[in-house]
Design goal:
The chain has 355 residues and is mainly α. The chain folds into two domains: 43 residues; 262 residues, MetI-like (MetI-like fold, Orthogonal Bundle), CATH 1.10.3720.10. A hairpin with a 5-residue loop joins strand 3 and strand 4.
Length: 355
């Protein structure tokens, strides 16, 4: 093997091109690189049995933790189905499509509770999402620096308030406002739509949606703010350098890059709204009815369980309430599946735009 200085060079790299039979020259083939032998340190670590045992134990522990999530979900489903068999056998799928809830005559249907849960949660999202995104944008890009810390702290503090405190605040503050000021104004202004009509007692779907919006606002706002903060500053600077206004910079550079994370924040907020119990129970009116009027009392899946579980007499009544819990579980799964599809659609469109 010839040498170049003190570094040995393979002959195939220093040799002259070899002529082929036809008289043309072809460069010599360079052999593939040979993997270096393991070092003494690596050999020593491989020979130690304690390291292998720790690695295998750690891997097994992680597998057990991952499988425990699946086990817990399956256990919840099993318990709900096993304890609601009586109601399932008595009513079948009609339980989810019937609006009759009569414990005295033994007739049960979950449709009014599903309706109240979905409508109040969606209306809460309609109220909370624009406000949350607006506050997140203000704190990041518009708010003076001395005020950013206090506003962010107060926003996160709202998420730590117990739901029963929200419920008490709604009973003494929000219900009178809806009954005496907001409700009459909505009836006068938008009564022609049929969504706001008398009677107005202050408790109902609208009041429950308002308190839910207040409760999910800090969740959506905090996560959206963190997602927007992760957008590189170069994106903002590039948009401003091209002559964009502040609103155009926020719309094209910040919101567009952070939309997937914002959708995830909305999903988390929706999850809390669907399962909220105490605050909603205190202000929704607790009446199993399907109504277009948002000022009328209603019921949710969580509120009916909280109200009637301790008073349930008879196996069929108790089984129906447990099936209500199963319905809440199924509604949560369906809503999260739809949200996941939405995230997938946004991600796919973003990938296509990038390509």
């Amino acid at each position: 093997m010839p040498e170049f200085g003190s570094i040995p060079v393979p002959a195939t790299q220093t040799g002259t091109p070899q002529p082929k039979t036809g008289g043309t020259l072809e460069p010599a083939t360079v052999p593939a690189a040979v993997a270096a032998p393991p070092s003494e340190v690596r050999k020593y670590l491989r020979e130690q049995s304690s390291g292998a045992a720790i690695d295998s134990t750690f891997a097994g522990l992680m597998v057990v933790c991952a499988l425990s999530v699946i086990f817990i979900v399956l256990l919840i489903v099993f318990v709900l189905v096993a304890n609601s068999k009586l109601s399932i056998h008595a009513f079948g799928w009609k339980f989810f499509g019937s609006s009759n809830w009569d414990p005295v005559n033994g007739s049960f249907g979950a449709l009014p509770f599903i309706y109240g849960t979905v409508v109040s949660s969606m209306l809460a999202l309609v109220i909370a999402v624009p406000l949350s995104i607006a506050v997140a944008i203000f704190v990041l890009d518009i708010c003076p620096l001395p005020l950013r810390g206090p506003i962010a702290f107060l926003t996160e503090l709202l998420a730590a308030i117990p739901s029963v405190v929200y419920g008490l605040w709604a009973v003494f503050v929000l219900v009178p406002i809806v009954r005496d000021q907001l409700g009459p104004w909505l009836v006068k202004t938008l009564g022609w739509t049929g969504f706001f009509a008398e009677p107005n007692f202050g408790v109902g779907i609208l009041t429950a949606s308002l308190i839910l919006a207040v409760m999910i606002f800090p969740v959506i706002c905090s996560i959206s703010r963190d997602v927007m903060r992760a957008v590189p500053s170069s994106q903002r600077e590039a948009a401003l350098a091209l002559g964009a206004t502040r609103w155009e910079m926020i719309r094209m550079s910040v919101l567009r890059n952070a939309r997937i994370g914002i959708v995830g924040a909305v999903i988390l907020g929706l999850g809390r709204a669907l399962g909220e119990t105490m605050a909603v129970t205190m202000v929704i009116g607790n009446h199993p009815d399907i109504t277009k009027n948002l000022l009328n009392p209603a019921h949710t899946l969580a509120s009916v369980i909280a109200n009637e579980f301790s008073e349930a007499t008879g196996d069929l009544y108790l089984s129906a309430l447990i099936e209500i819990g199963l319905a809440l579980f199924l509604v949560t799964i369906v809503v999260n599946a739809i949200a996941r599809l939405l995230v997938w659609a946004v991600t796919r469109n973003s990938a296509r735009a990038t390509a």
